[in-house]
Predict the 3D structure of the following.
Amino acid sequence: MTNDSQATTASGPPVTFINVFEIDESEIDGFITGWEKRVQLMAGKPGFIDSRLHRARSADSRFQLVNVSHWESEEAYQAATADPAFSSRTQAARDDAKGTVAPNPALYDVAVAVTAP
Amino acid sequence: MTNDSQATTASGPPVTFINVFEIDESEIDGFITGWEKRVQLMAGKPGFIDSRLHRARSADSRFQLVNVSHWESEEAYQAATADPAFSSRTQAARDDAKGTVAPNPALYDVAVAVTAP
């Protein structure tokens, strides 16, 4: 599942999408259920590699949910998220959560990677 | 590099350590250099699987750096970071950065994982 094992598309190097969520604890279970459905829309798109939604072990952690997804290129990511079916579901999720979910999405490169010797 | 391919230790399931950094743009390059040295202290510890430091593609992103590391168990992570050599280097990095780096470290479980079909 490393980017290294994936062929890159002609349009660019692999990219990591990370979304850091601030969310009320009472909203977490419902949000995960909704996210599980939305991510299926992404999983079939060209250039999608994988996605993990992480949940904090401690309720005291500032960011209770963190999504880390890998794409073959930024262009593939942009094309997938431009799909109106995706944006309408994302908007619906925001409406459901009544403002208690603050996402912080961004695209990243791997600056340093280290594996156990 | 998935946790699934690693044998878990007797002490617990695999865990993901994520550290979300708020950092002044001018500090980023120096911080990455220091981090690259510090992570070597971790890489040889029992239970360490891998670690990636991600850098935002856009200077406008709220969180310019995000570290995602995998450990065989929370106990292995706790034991590694209890090493005084590690804490002293981490403290030195904080002092060098003069308060312009705000880390948000936490431990996570994978709530949902999806791979391209």
About this structure: The CA atoms of residues 22 and 81 of chain B lie 21 Å apart.
